[in-house]
Amino acid sequence: MTFHLHNRQDALNVLPGDMQRAAKLLDCCDYATFRARTAMYSNDLAEAERWVHEFLRCKRDLDELVKRKEEHDKLLQVVEMMKERGIDIAFIMRKGNE
C-alpha cells in the first residue's frame, strides 16, 4: 500500500523540504500496521510485535519532522513580531555573529 505525495501534502504539517521523507514515513507507518494486523490474524505475536516496533520507529521519525516544522513556524512568528515592533533582525543577527 503506497500513498502518493500529492494526496497527503495537506495532511502532513512538515517543511516543504521534508515532504518526500514524511510521505515515505507515513507509508512506512501504514505498511507496518498492515503487516502487524496480518501477523495477528496468523497468530504470530512475535512478528506482530516486530511490526509494531517498526511502526513506532517510523512514527517517531515523522513526529520529529512535524516538530521541526512547528519550531520553524514559531521562529517565523517571533521574527514577524520583532518586525512589527521595529526591531531590525538583520542587526541582531550581525551582533550574534561577532
**Which spans have pLDDT < 50 for at least 5 consecutive residues?**
none
**What share of the residues lie within helices?**
over 70%
Mean of pLDDT = 88
Order of helices and strands: HHHH
Q: Main beta sheet: strand number and arrangement?
A: none
Instruction: Output the radius of gyration.
Output: 20 Å
- β-strand percent reads under 5%
Span of the ends, CA to CA: 52 Å
Number of helix segments?
Answer: 4
Walk me through the structure.
With 98 residues, the chain is mostly helical. The protein has four helices and no strands. 9% of the residues are buried. The model has no long low-confidence stretch (mean pLDDT 88).
Descriptive labels:
98 residues, mainly alpha
Task: Compile the SSE list and pairings.
Elements (H helix, E strand, L loop, with lengths): L4 H4 L10 H23 L3 H40 L4 H8 L2
Give a brief outline of the structure:
The protein has 98 residues and is mostly helical. It is built from four helices and no strands. The termini are far apart.
